[in-house]
Amino acid sequence: QVHLVESGGGLVQPGGSLRLSCAGSRSIFSIYGMAWYRQAPGKQRELVAAITSGGMENYADSVKGRFTISRDNAKNTVSLQMNSLKPEDTAVYYCNADPPNRLLPAYWGQGTQVTVSS
């Protein structure tokens, strides 16, 4: 069993920055794709950013140019740097480990709240 633990959420004013981190309990990062999702009240969970095991990045259009995903396989961590935050970025953010094949399970963190408000 792998546990993913997010940290770094909180309350920030519009235009501010936050950095989310996700730490894994054991080394799966080298073969798993990693991603951040978010879910706002009353809305479906959506993909925010993803990074493959090889380091290729993908972003939702709504966060391109503002958010950056990165990973450190040696430390079993994935991070999301969020700049120029907007009120519509308010959501619970979840870390996801996406397996390279269907024989392996996916993993989710418990979520961390990000609130952008003045």
Overall mean pLDDT: 94
| Percentage of residues in DSSP E strands | over 45%
Order of helices and strands: EEEEEEEEEEE
What distance separates the N and C termini? 40 Å
- Low-pLDDT segments: none
From the helix content, strand content and strand pairing, which structural class follows?
mainly beta
Gyration radius from CA atoms, angstroms: 14 Å
Helical segment count: 0
Helical content stands at under 10%
Shape: globular
Largest sheet: 7 strands, mixed
Record field, number of beta strands: 11
Oligomer: single chain
Describe this structure in words.
This protein is mostly beta strands. 0% of the residues lie in helices and 48% in strands. It is built from no helices and eleven strands. The chain has strands at 4-7, 10-12, 18-24, 33-39, 46-51, 57-59, 67-72, 77-82, 91-98, 107-108, 112-116. Strands 2, 4, 5, 6, 9, 10 and 11 form a seven-stranded mixed sheet that branches. Strands 1-3-8-7 form a four-stranded antiparallel sheet, with no helix packed on it. The mean pLDDT is 94.
Describe the protein's topology.
Layout: E1 4-7, E2 10-12, E3 18-24, E4 33-39, E5 46-51, E6 57-59, E7 67-72, E8 77-82, E9 91-98, E10 107-108, E11 112-116
Parallel strand pairs: 2-11
Antiparallel strand pairs: 1-3, 3-8, 4-5, 4-9, 5-6, 7-8, 9-10, 9-11
